[in-house]
Amino acid sequence: MLVPKTEERRKDHYEEDRFSLSLERHCMFPGSLVVYWKRLAKFGFATILTLALASTGPFSVWAQRSSDAEAHARRAEAAIAENQPDIALTELHALLLLVPNDLNARASLGMVLFTQGRCDLAAPELEAALLRAPHLWNAKALLGICKLRLARTAKGQSEIEEALPRLTDKHLRGEAGLALVKSYADEGNYSQAAITIDVLQRDDPQNEALLFAAYRVHSAIAAAALQRLSQLAPESARVHQVIGDDMFVQENYESAINEYHEALKRDPRLAGVHLSLGQALLARVLARMLLRMSSN
Questions:
Q1: N or C: which end of the chain has fewer CB within 10 A?
Q2: What's the maximum distance between 2 C-alpha atoms anywhere in the chain?
Q3: Which of 105, 112, 111, 125 is nearest to 83 (CA)?
Q4: How far, in Å, CA of 189 to CA of 187, rounded?
Q5: pLDDT tens digit string along 173-227?
Q6: Can you tell me the mean pLDDT for 103-116?
Q7: b/e code 255-277 from CB counts within 10 Å (16+ = b)
Q8: Residue 169: pLDDT above 80?
Q9: How far apart are CA 40 and CA 139, in angstroms?
Q10: 46, 55, 57, 47: which is closest to 13 by C-alpha?
Q11: CA dist list (Å): 242 to 97, 227, 239
């Protein structure tokens, strides 16, 4: 296997970093996705180097490109810098015809396609890169998002589940995690969605999207529990208590008071209902006082 000289390795690292920076600065696609690519390059190529040096056979990530291949690589970089993704894709395809095992080009192609929303084409490129370097966790997370968008739900969930604990980039971790949460919720697997949200919030408790997702998921869990409770015991004290709580939140204090009374008729010792009833009575008095003040 060809092992590069020190200067050649430095040049390769420089080219990779410069290519990723051009994506971040100039790419016309969503900024957060471009940041993911930069970090994919930054963290991923160290793994690729380790695997390449340990592998056998003719394949090497660091194999020298021909002059034609280098020209295609430069034109692809320039096209990305000038917000010309179609030209970039053409050049990357041409480069891969000359150097099929160039993981830099393969990952670049997958990322450009991903940022265009062309997951049907991005997924095979990301899979090809992962075939050579299976521990590129950022790429695996992006592949999982693609598979979810392509309705390959089980495989997409599996990819993200494997990558998520190993992702160090907060933005990509959040994006992949939310995609996973949505896929669970779409299946009605709210318990797993809630577990995933809890894990994500440990690292990013102020994330607005995660907070909203937590609200939606836990609301769905509450609604499902109420539906089940209503089916099993439609006239139980607990059902009236829950309905009373819901009326209270909606500031419909009269209905809330009625529901709490119904709950106490069925179970005078029901925990929490006396307090809730007292709060509803007080809120009704205050609401009437405010109404009188505003009318005067």
A1: C
A2: 91
A3: 112
A4: 5
A5: 999 999 999 999 999 999 999 999 999 999 899 999 999 999 999 999 988 988 8
A6: 85
A7: ebbbbbebbbebeeebeebeebb
A8: yes
A9: 7
A10: 46
A11: 65, 11, 5
- Does the reported pTM lie above 0.90? no
For residue 44, give both structure tokens: 């991923």
Three-state SS for 24? Answer: helix
In this prediction, residues 19-44 reach a mean pLDDT of 39
How far is Cα 238 from Cα 63, in angstroms, rounded to an integer?
70
Domain residue ranges in the chain: 6-187, 233-296
91 neighbors 83 (Cβ within 8 angstroms)? no
Query: End-to-end distance of the chain based on CA atoms, in angstroms?
Result: 91
Is 282 exposed, middle or buried, given 0-12, 13-18 or 19+ CB atoms closer than 10 A? exposed
Instruction: Please name the residue that has the structure tokens 């592949």.
Output: 143
Q: How far apart are CA 103 and CA 46, in angstroms?
A: 12
